[in-house]
Amino acid sequence: MRARLIQFWFNIQSSYWFIPFTMGVLACVLALIIIALDRSWGTALISSQPWLYANTPEAARSILACVAGSMITVGGVVFAITISSVSQSASQYGPRLLTNFMRDRGNQFALATFTSTFLYCIIVLRSVETESETIRNVSGFVPHLAIFVALILTFASVGILIYFVHHVPQSIHISNVIAQIGNELNAKLDVIFPERIGNEDSSQGKNDAEQFGEDSVGDDERLIHVDGTGYVQTLDAESVFEVAIKADVLIKLTCRPGDFVFPGRIVARVSPKQNASDDVAQQIASAYAWGTQRTPSQDIMFLVNELIEIAARALSPGMNDPYSAMGATDWLSAALVHCMERETPEGQRFDEEGVLRVVAEPINFEELIDHSIGALCPYVCQDRNAATHLVRCLVRLTDAANTKYHREVIQRSATLLHKSCQNQSWYENDKSLFDNLANQIKAAMHGQSG
Fold it and tell me: In degrees rounded to 5, what are phi and psi of residue 268?
């Protein structure tokens, strides 16, 4: 259940409607409060403060109607511009980036400001009363303080509009898009790999946990299935650990965020079998929350795939933009260096008494670099600039490597890239350059290992 709540909160934060809706409600509440203050001592405030302008009912209505009409018009334009820019950017950089643009706080606050000002003015407008219309007194009612606040909101909206005009082209600039994904990837790596490497003998990247294939079934294990179809978006690991302790079982997780599940997919194995009641199985299954798309909430491979997709699209014949691909490669290499500096979390989790309770499959450096470089090879090997830049990135990775394990993994990726580029027609003309870069990786590896 907690996994569903975590997923729901992430979806709320990623939605385009939550902030505008919340600020709209707050604007209505603010209008009612200001109107109540106006009825209590608004007239006295106006008379004691000459810099506040006292409006007639007709003037008040004109001002509020003008502001409300302008705000809803500008809000519609803002929404149209946002959708247009998002659609164009998603078609160029990839449809998975649509979520990034929808989560953009600048666009959300811009739309929220205009709609909130509109709602505020509408609420205040209905409180204006002339002497012939009033039902409370014979002198009518003009919410002077509320109108003054409406003018302040109008000035703020103009400032937000200027910001929005600047923010939209900035947010869809390819360099900023890549940097945003890269920074989010590094932030997620800090969460998943909180511990930093302490010494040369670190076992970074080596998963000590056993790997449990779906084909091997133990006699004393109960298989846990899910009844839905989609991508795992959230895994409530704390709930799984609590269930394992309470039921006195060992839970082997065979599915992690980003994996695709379907009815009958094994997501966990519980032993001993006699302790794995139906209630325990239900609690473990409910620790998973899935949806129709992958999200960066707990899935760092989703962010890696976004950078790979940008690079792949940039190197396509239709776009032919190797420099955008090189930018994506730079941020991927920065993430790999960030990962090398941190300890891979253990795949085993013990309780306070030292009893093994949960076995998982954490992501390690080897999987991360194999997924990144392996996916990029078919695309970068077709472009001389992108290929040589990727090799230079691998050289820098080798220089930054602090363990033999890291250098061996990088060397294997460099060899894969080197073999992929050998079959390209451009390779003959640049063979010496490419070979020199590849030899730099070998030299750096042997130099550091020696």
Answer: -165, 160
